[in-house]
Amino acid sequence: MALARADLESLLRARQLDRTLTTTLPPVEYDAAACGITALDVHLGGGFPRGQVSELVGPRSSGRTSLLHRMLAAATAHGELVALVDALDMFDVESASAAGIHLDRLLWIRGHVVSNPGMCRDMNQRALEQALRAFTLVLQAGNFGLVAFDVAEAPSHAIRRLPFTTWLRLQRMVEGSQTICLLVGSEPMARSSAGLTVKVGQRSEGKGQRFGVRLFDGLDVDASIVSARWRRFVLDAHDGSNDQRRSVLDTCEGGAPRELNNVRVSVSTICA
Q1: Cβ atoms within 10 A of the Cβ of 184, count?
Q2: Closest CA to 83 of 136, 148, 137, 128
Q3: What secondary structure letter does DSSP report for 28?
């Protein structure tokens, strides 16, 4: 049995599919890019990792789109090019501009997936696959600091029908680059291929909505890191002489995901 397992692991490594193994991955250093929300960046050890597939998930009205806008705004503010594959064509330009996104540094690719396809499920599946191909082409092109694939309102069965190797290919494609590969959805989709999964949602005690004198002012959102397989090392100075490297974000023993403490994030809304 042990020999058969060793042969299987050797074959997976030869085919560059070793990320499917449950054994601990070797330490790799990744740069991080701040998402623009200080509390979340602190918990992430600096921000979202570059050269990794990350996920931003949460239900409707959870704050996921606002957090995506903050990430796009932070990247464009630093002069980076960003790309958004908007599979369901739900991106609002005015809201994006109000959030601080520099639209002249944004590549917006509009899809035609629908949330309720009815009898046209096959057409909807092909539309999702076309959006995924566009996402792949943008990643291959490089030169982008952040590339997001927004399928948040896509039917869950359509996402599940995508081959599992899809996410493995994306990880192999982006690994070693300076690009943040971000999947945005209502639930995790990349499974073991994801280096980081952040889940957002309104506060459970029902006090997440904020109102001003007359208008809705914003949301108070909880963000939790429910999966973290990437590692980023920082230097700890001891006695001013010996520097030791420590991991600021890692998995638990045995490769199991670690859930960190919830982060309270305030999301403001500009009302006309």
Answers
A1: 24
A2: 148
A3: -
From the CB of residue 39, how many other CB atoms can be counted at a distance below 10 Å? 12
Record the tokens describing residue 246, joined without a space. 């420590």
- Stretch 77-104: mean pLDDT: 94
154, 87 contact by CB (below 8 A)? yes
pTM beyond cutoff 0.90: no
Residue 242 scores a pLDDT above 60: no
Q: State the Cα–Cα distance between residues 252 and 255, nearest whole angstrom.
A: 6
pLDDT attached to residue 259: 39
C-alpha to C-alpha distance for 101 and 84, rounded to whole angstroms: 12
Above 70 in pLDDT, residue 229? no
Rounded to whole angstroms, what are the CA distances from 260 to 15, 142, 151, 187, 248?
33, 32, 25, 18, 12
188 three-class SS: coil
To the question of domain 30-268 being in CATH 3.40.190.10, the answer is: no
The amino acid occupying position 21 is L
DSSP three-state, residue 74: helix
CB atoms within 10 A of CB 259: 12
Cα 95 to Cα 74: distance, rounded to the nearest angstrom: 15
Burial of 182 (0-12, 13-18, 19+ CB in 10 A): buried
Centre a 10 Å sphere on the Cβ of residue 234 and count the other Cβ atoms it contains. Answer: 12
Q: How confident is the model at residue 237 (pLDDT cuts 50, 70, 90)?
A: very low
Instruction: Find, among 220, 170, 223, 219, the residue nearest to 200 by Cα.
Output: 223
CA 268, 60, 50, 78: dihedral to nearest 10 degrees? -30
